[in-house]
Design a protein that fits this description.
Radius of gyration: 31 Å
Shape: globular
Strand content: over 45%
Distance between the termini: 62 Å
Largest sheet: 19 strands, mixed
Structural class: mainly beta
Number of strands: 44
């Protein structure tokens, strides 16, 4: 019976062509996943799937030697002469019996250290041997969840479009790619995807990237959100303890199995086993894992990387032929796991590259890459599907047509379109999925705020969205919103429409207008959420606002790769506003509200501006040098390049209508970059400078305002665009200026080495900030802080001690960072 089931599976998952197929088990008959199988003296290979099944393409009916290699098991080589196909070859592997008999033990030091030192000494030479190559690449990614709650934080989760079964378990993502890759040291890489398949979406494009899967332990660090030190890095002996667990032979090559453990558990390090070839001092295999804490992704419980290498007899070098990345995760009651498989074949270590081999387009799709049929995949897929994956494809492909049909989409909409009891307050959306449009109502309850001009205030609105393709790359959005302040007793309206034409060059046109209150600093340095609390609880009404009646048009487009243009033009009527309430929740003795005048906070009778009309235009160019990108026929995804900074250049012009003294032109340039320093952390800088032409008599609104902070609360992921102790408008200028922000996140490089403290997985952050204007002496700040604070999987807090220096004086205070406000957009 088992033989019949196996034959049925093989017929379903392979094509009737020149293939060797079968199952690999251990001596107890249990299937062995991800066993490497390859033809001797060739680059043709494959690996078994989770069920132990494999398929191996051969070119002719001739005698071949097939090797089966798996870490911890004896390599087995079978010589066969297939006479018909598919040729079934089932094998059983024996566990490798490691031995220390041939190793001369030294009582003062484990022999593993000799091996590690020799491998470290050879590290650069090993990297040089991989300085350039081409190869064929196959990848498969799978995400699976289980025990998904029906509600998270009161919101319905749904069944993920039918992906979950009755136990709230299922595969939510399954995709495959077959591609051709090319690499040249130090960082030139290109990938052309020949075939792409996404379960349940026959128009989908998988972005399982060979570059993101290119984990090399010959490098000093491996960047997985955080830079983890390799067990054979130049400085690895400072981070790891090693123990030789045993040796065994691969042919006439002696293989050392070495156990790797961290010296300090919360360093950015790995743990597990590495296998090193004696005398060659090259990797034979890796079985290493890291924690979510180590890579600073708290919802990831563990990530494991297994790699297998084979000897390239032609070049006398051990090359990677397969890799698996397994990970587990859990958040908000939902748990799951995932796996990415990579198989490398057909290496060419002496390629001929032309001038156009490597471009900024690092990943692209060949025409019709996502249109390959099942026969193509069964004939070219090197790793057979598991039963689970096969069922997922069959299930989702069979219901794909149904899910795009009008009756099905109408039934889904009917359920989601049912309003709730509190919809009048929270909001409501009516969606017609088949005709690709939706209308919505934005409820006022989430927009309730307080300020001393409007008092208690909130917003509500109506929205319309239309999309013209399934991927929602061609869209139209429109909205009308109303705001009302109780103390001011004023109702204002705004309206806008946005047309997004595509995701290739990201052409967007917008038209907006109406009446609203805005901060004098258009960057809005204080959030309405923070201002509400500081005002009501501490009588610190820092937010200063005016009324803007306007009409504006906008344009943005990536003209060519790396150059993005933004332009806007509009008519503006600006009017001053005054405080209308002195309401406070908890009165504070000795503290009282300031006026709405940012220039003179104690002047309640005179405004900072007079009512006036102006026409404003602004042009900004964002330049990303050597910008790398992924592309498919529908989209372009810019991924940047941290080797080069981002440059922004802008020109803003104002033409006064009621008063020509309001005419001005402002020029500004900024440059910013994030630089990885491997395991020593991440360095950020942001430098800005600008000047005004004819700026002497302009409105205070049009001054250059700097992002200050008087609330002692930080709301951004990093502080490279803010002065945390600077008053909001004390340094505003209509003359030349320069500001600079530097910040270094050590990412555990320092605190991870201090006993006791290293258990907390905290990050030390240092910063410096500087401002110079024509009319004032320089202002500066320095800071030292702790990041990655929080509880369990939620680490979105940060605390900094900041000291400011101005006119010979200095002042210090603590800043409490609430990074989740930045994520929520408040």
């Amino acid at each position: 019976m088992q033989a019949k089931l196996l034959l049925l599976f093989l017929l379903l998952s392979t094509s009737i062509s020149a293939q060797i197929v079968g199952k690999v088990t251990d001596t107890d008959g249990e299937p062995l996943p991800y066993v490497n199988i390859y033809l001797q003296k060739s680059y043709i290979g494959t690996t078994t799937n989770d069920d132990g099944n494999y398929s191996l393409n051969v070119s002719e009916n001739a005698e071949v030697k097939v090797s089966f290699q798996f870490l911890g098991y004896k390599t087995l080589t079978k010589t066969i002469t297939p006479t018909s196909f598919p040729y079934i070859l089932n094998v059983s592997l024996e566990e490798e019996s490691t031995s220390l008999d041939e190793v001369l033990l030294n009582t003062s030091e484990d022999p593993a250290y000799r091996i590690i030192r020799a491998t470290i000494a050879q590290r650069k030479e090993n990297l040089a041997r991989l300085s350039e190559y081409t190869a064929d690449f196959y990848s498969r990614g799978l995400w699976k969840v289980e025990n998904v709650p029906e509600k998270i934080m009161g919101q319905e989760v749904g069944d993920f479009d039918g992906m979950l079964d009755s136990t709230r378990t299922g595969v939510i993502y399954l995709s495959e790619t077959i591609s051709e890759i090319a690499y040249q040291k130090p960082d030139k890489f290109t990938e052309k995807i020949i075939a792409s398949k996404v379960s349940g979406n026959d128009n989908g494009f998988s972005f399982n990237s060979a570059q993101s899967a290119n984990i090399s332990f010959y490098e000093n660090t491996i960047d997985l959100n955080a830079a983890l030190v390799s067990p054979i890095a130049n400085n690895a002996l400072n981070y790891y303890n090693y123990k030789l667990e045993g040796v065994f032979y691969e042919g006439n090559k002696l293989i050392n199995k070495i156990k790797v453990t961290p010296k300090r558990p919360n360093d950015r390090v790995w743990r597990g086993s590495i296998y090193i070839v004696e005398d060659d001092w090259q990797l034979y295999g890796t079985d290493l894992s890291a924690t979510g804490a180590a890579i600073q992704v708290p919802f990831v419980s563990n990530i494991q990387v297994k790699q297998n290498y084979k000897l390239d007899n032609k070049n006398e070098y051990w090359i990677k032929i397969s890799q698996t990345i397994d990970f587990g995760f859990g958040l908000l009651g939902m748990e799951g796991d995932g796996r990415f498989i990579a198989v490398y074949s057909n290496y060419d270590f002496k390629p001929v590259f032309g001038n156009k081999t490597f471009t900024n387009e690092v990943l692209s799709f060949k025409p019709e890459a996502n249109k390959k049929d099942s026969l193509y995949w069964t004939g070219n897929r090197p790793v057979p599907l598991t039963n689970e994956e096969l069922k997922d494809y069959i299930k989702k492909d069979s219901i794909q047509v149904l899910r795009s049909s009008k009756p099905y989409l109408d039934s889904l909409d009917a359920k989601s379109n049912t309003p709730g009891i509190l919809s009048l307050l929270t909001g409501y959306t009516y969606k017609n999925s088949y005709e690709k449009w939706s209308v919505g109502y934005e409820g006022p309850i989430s927009k309730i705020n307080f300020n001393t001009v409007q008092g208690w205030n909130s917003k509500a609105g109506l929205t319309y969205n239309k999309w013209y393709d399934d991927n929602q790359t061609n869209t139209l959005s429109a909205a009308v919103r109303a705001s009302y302040g109780v103390a001011e007793d004023r109702l204002r309206f705004t309206a806008g429409i946005l047309r997004n034409f595509n995701w290739k060059d990201k052409l967007r046109l917008s038209l907006s207008g109406g009446s609203k209150v805005v901060q004098f600093n258009e960057s809005e340095p204080i959030s309405t959420f923070i201002n509400t609390f500081s005002t009501l609880l501490f009588e610190r009404n820092y937010m200063k606002i005016y009324e803007l009646n306007y009409g504006r048009i906008g344009y943005s487009q990536e003209v060519f790769n790396g150059l993005h243009l933004y332009a806007s033009a509009g008519y503006e009527n600006r009017s001053p506003l005054f405080n209308n309430t002195d309401y406070v929740t908890i009165p504070n003795d000795g503290t009282s509200y300031t006026s709405n005048n940012p220039i003179a906070p104690n002047d309640f009778n005179n405004a900072a501006i007079a009512e006036h009309n102006i026409v404003k235009t602004k042009l900004r160019a964002r330049i990303n040098f050597a910008q790398k990108y992924f592309s498919n026929p529908d989209m372009k995804f810019n991924i940047g390049d941290n080797k080069f900074p981002e440059l922004n250049i802008s020109v803003e012009n104002g033409a006064g209508i009621t008063n020509s003294s309001y005419d001005y032109t402002q020029f500004e340039a900024s440059i910013n970059q994030s630089i990885s320093l491997a395991n020593k952390g991440q360095f950020y800088y942001n430098l800005k400078g600008g000047t005004f032409a004819n700026g002497e008599g302009i409105s205070f609104i049009d001054y250059k305002h700097f992002n200050g902070n008087q609330t002692r609360v930080g709301t951004s992921a990093n502080y490279t665009n803010v002065f945390n102790l600077m008053p909001y408008y004390a340094f505003s200028t209509n003359k030349s200026y320069f500001e600079g922000h530097l910040e270094h996140d050590f990412r555990g490089w320092i605190l991870g080495k201090i006993p006791g403290i290293n258990q907390l997985n905290l990050n030390l952050i240092a910063g410096a900030h500087f401002l110079s204007t024509e009319e004032r002496k320089p202002y500066s700040e320095v800071s030292i802080g702790i990041d990655n604070l929080g509880f369990g999987k939620f680490r979105l807090l940060r605390v900094d001690y900041v000291r400011s220096y101005y006119q010979g004086g200095n002042h210090g205070a603590f800043i409490f960072g609430l990074k989740f406000l930045d994520l929520l957009g408040n």
